[in-house]
Sequence to fold (577 residues):
Amino acid sequence: MASLNVRAALLSISFLILALGLWEMSTQPPAATQATSEYELLMGISGQESRVPPPSAVIKVAWAELSNPFYDAGANDKGIGIQLAYSVYRVLTGYLAAMAIALPLGFLIGMSPLMYKALNPYIQVLRPISPLAWMPLALFIIQDSDASAIFVIFICSIWPMLLNTAFGVANVRSDWVNVARTHELNPFKTAITVILPAAAPTILTGMRISIGIAWLVIVAAEMLVGGTGIGYYVWNEWNNLDLSSVIFSILMIGVVGMLLDLALGKAQKLVEYKE
Amino acid sequence: MSKPFLEVDGLSKVYPDGQGGDLTVFEDIRFALQKGEFVCIIGHSGCGKSTILNVLAGLDEASSGNVVMNGKEVKGPGLERGVVFQNYSLLPWKTALNNIIFAVKARWPKWSKDKVREHSERYLKMVGLDHALNRKPSQLSGGMRQRVSIARAFATQPELLLLDEPFGALDALTRGVIQDELVKIWEETRQTVFMITHDVDEAILLSDRIFLMSNGPNARIAESVQVNLPHPRSRATIFQNPAHHKIRDYLVDFLVNRSGSAQPEQDGTPKVIDPSAGDAAPKPAPAKPDTETETAARAVNA
Fold:
């Protein structure tokens, strides 16, 4: 009997082939029962045109795009690599800015019950707001569409990081804090040498949730602000009625999202500890 | 007698009892420790032993009374008092060696890296763990973890070492082995130690004096029993000394029959008892053994 991994891989591949096969078959043009009239041809309403493209068409687009991902032929014609790079750049910028605020603030809230009680109402009100709801305000205040998209990423990725940091810090085992106290560590040293490593797994969990949300939101944000990025690319291809490209870029969004999550997952492994 | 190294004066702890009233766990605790003494404190659960130890450590505050060490009042935790907790309290993301280095660096911030490492390794070797320097606490057995914890406390060379039931979570065999190691380390270092235990034999093996606490609430340190047995002691031979039996009988009798009613001297200091010199429990003792109490059960089973 093959190992579990091998069997799982075989099953995965079979599912893929099955799904692609069904997709390909269901998107075949119907056999023409009667010749398409000249009028229909002229108007572009022959059945074939309005169908979802078959996987073979998507693969053709993917091949073309991936073999030259970084070409730049003007504002509305950039390679998929460039578009993804724009999106990743916006996500990382907003995400790092959120980190710079959320981690220290989370420490403060976690270490001080007073600050927790004082700030908690604001967090609870601000947290459930859809990040895109900030967009008009951001556009008005910042007056720059690119920075507004980054702001939206910032505002959506700050909450999980902030709350998880505060929770992790507040719930560090009192024994470990007592160890710091009996060794006369000052508050700053305690925070760095005891509380940070103790809370790191919880903090990283928050960071992993945040990067996932940020990647979800950037697509919508870029559809709104336009110009560049994978979200804009999807919308642009929809306007071009190029559904093969739309499907291809959906897959690319998934792949990049998975890679971002994998990276955070690796970081999470690094700070994990067993009690 | 010279001025004692540690003086505890009129300590008490009052908690709200959850029904609008107050609950006095222990009151008017008075005792003194001399430099280099090993003192164990025994009492039933709920008499506040751990709270007393935490007050000495500076991790908890008494409701009244004060603690003076070396002429200075104890306020808050400090490196001159080392603590070994029952649950080891090792930092799980650090290796055994790094746990000790953490403490040594805190104690002597100006030491060079090499000196810190060498010092830390020496103390791990002392507890027989030089083969497990780079293992994390999760990869060590309970006994090995407690050894690391003991090494960490000794490595900072505190003036007073506080042990909160350090062997309570260990199986009997492991406990015996580590007790022997503690005896050995203590013979080498002659630290002043204040230790909580539930185990009568452990107390006799380790201490110079044993404080006996009456039951809570309103618990007191009622008696201070002298353990006049020669050092160095060992688990295998200590029971051959006739004084051992007298001390043990006295302690068990106190825990089973008298812990509910025992009182200290009029001035609040514990009554000094020396069973090896013929001091025996006052007769007649109330013949009503307290069957619920875990200490008595363990003491009798041991």
In short: Chain A touches chain B through 18 residues (CB under 8 Å). The radius of gyration of chain A is 25 Å. The CA atoms of residues 222 and 231 of chain A lie 5 Å apart. The mean pLDDT of chain A is 91.
